[in-house]
Design a protein that fits this description.
By secondary structure, the protein is α/β, with parallel strands linked by helices. Helices cover 45% and strands 15% of the residues. The protein is elongated, with a radius of gyration of 26 Å. The two termini are 33 Å apart.
Length: 411
């Protein structure tokens, strides 16, 4: 079985790592790792999806992932990446949110037979005695060094509360606690957590005398510079009650072309050679890749049945639009296998009945009168294939008024 670190590297997951050689060696045998999720909302959104997928890759690689719900640290609030303090939440709110997050993570990880663990740091943080914590844990931290952490330096300009200042100590304590009680030797997280991860590794070294490792992921923005998972209508949630599987599917199918390869690498389990095949040609050929991304991402998050429903609904709505816009347009059926082999545009126009002969089809194309999905066909031997599909259909046009809908009936 391949080393998971190599998988992370080829898929673009690695931003920073404590010790590459030691981590690669560590991942050469089964190990426990963890990522923390603060329950500050009823659901996680797709901004948390890269860390979740990393845990899934770890499990698929024979390791044991620990999803740590931050019921305790959420009482303090992580200052990382925030320009002001988070509102203080009640324990009841935090516990309710934690239950929802547990259910969502179960769609990505198999928790049966303890092959993955779901823990809540409130179990060991809330019983802590403050004086003992300062004496046993706080003495290992340098305030001068803590203030150099990016998460703290940014907040010093707008004001950092003493409550938030304690967050690094608590997360470091989590890492130490998990290493000691669950043999967890790796923490992963977004790159804004780098300082907290290092603090945990340093605390464990000081108390226990052994090294534990950390790895961070890039903080993802889309090609246009916007934050991952943010749309005009709001966040894209993993909870189907907040974002339906159909809406989830539509988010992925409408992403920027420049993001397709990267997001296929991050958010699906497709082999990299298949991702390369889907995205190597670019341009109009990326439509098939977007369809695959939308289906695979929805299947992972909501299951195959919901992914099929979302795909079929998308197809029906597209077909309805086509029928409404081009009433009376004839249809031509072709198998997915036939189309996947590729067919010359002039032959398809003839077979679909838009031209009487292949010679007529060649002349039509040479005169600029043939269109596929609204775009002019450049040459008679342009290959039409599955990458031209738009929700399992292709719209052909000859001249100004003759249309034909090419249907795929065994896709």
């Amino acid at each position: 079985m391949r080393n998971v670190y190599d998988i992370f590297q080829e898929r673009g997951f690695v931003e920073q790592v404590t010790d590459e050689n030691m981590l690669r060696q560590l991942l050469g045998k089964p190990v426990s790792c963890y990522i923390g999720f603060d329950p500050t909302a009823k659901s996680l959104h797709i901004g948390s999806l890269l860390p979740i997928m990393s845990l899934a890759h770890m499990q698929r690689g024979g390791h044991r992932p620990i999803a740590l719900v931050g019921g305790g640290t959420a009482l303090v609030g992580d200052p990382s990446g925030k320009d002001q303090a988070r509102p203080v939440m009640t324990r009841e709110e935090i516990n309710s949110n934690a239950e929802g997050i547990k259910a969502q993570l179960s769609n990505f990880l198999d928790f049966s037979n303890e092959s993955a663990l779901m823990l809540n740091n409130a179990d060991w943080l809330t019983p802590l005695n403050y004086i003992e914590f300062l004496r046993d844990i706080g003495r290992h931290f340098s305030v001068n060094r803590m203030l150099t952490a990016e998460s703290y330096r940014q907040r010093l300009e707008t004001g950092l509360s003493f409550l938030e200042f304690n967050y690094m100590l608590l997360q470091a304590y989590d890492f130490w606690y998990l290493s000691k009680h669950y043999n967890c030797l790796l923490q992963m997280g977004g790159n804004d957590q780098w300082g907290n991860i290092l603090a945990g590794a340093d605390l464990t070294r000081r108390i226990e005398g052994y090294a534990i490792q950390g790895l961070t992921f890039p903080l993802i923005t889309t090609a246009d510079g916007s934050k991952m998972g943010k749309t005009q209508s709001g966040a894209v949630w993993l909870d189907r009650k907040l974002t339906s599987p159909y809406e989830y599917y539509q988010y992925w199918i409408n992403i920027d072309d420049r993001d397709v390869k990267r997001f296929l690498s991050y958010f699906t389990f497709l082999p990299m050679d298949e991702i390369e095949r889907l995205t190597s040609k670019g341009g109009e050929h990326l439509r098939e890749a977007k369809n695959v991304l939308a289906y695979e991402a929805t299947k992972i998050c909501h299951g195959k049945e919901e992914a099929n429903k979302a795909k079929n609904t998308s197809l029906q709505l597209f077909r309805k639009k086509v029928v409404n816009d081009f009433k009376g347009a004839p249809s031509y059926q072709i198998t997915y296998k036939e189309l996947n082999k590729g067919i010359d545009a002039y032959i398809l126009l003839t077979n679909a009945g838009l031209c009487k002969t292949r010679g007529e089809a060649r002349r039509l194309i040479s005169q600029g009168g043939a269109y596929i999905n609204g775009k002019r066909v450049p040459t008679f031997d342009t290959i039409v294939g599955t990458d031209n599909l738009k929700d399992n259909a292709i719209l052909l046009r000859a001249g100004k008024k003759k249309y034909c809908i090419v249907d795929i009936y065994d896709a």
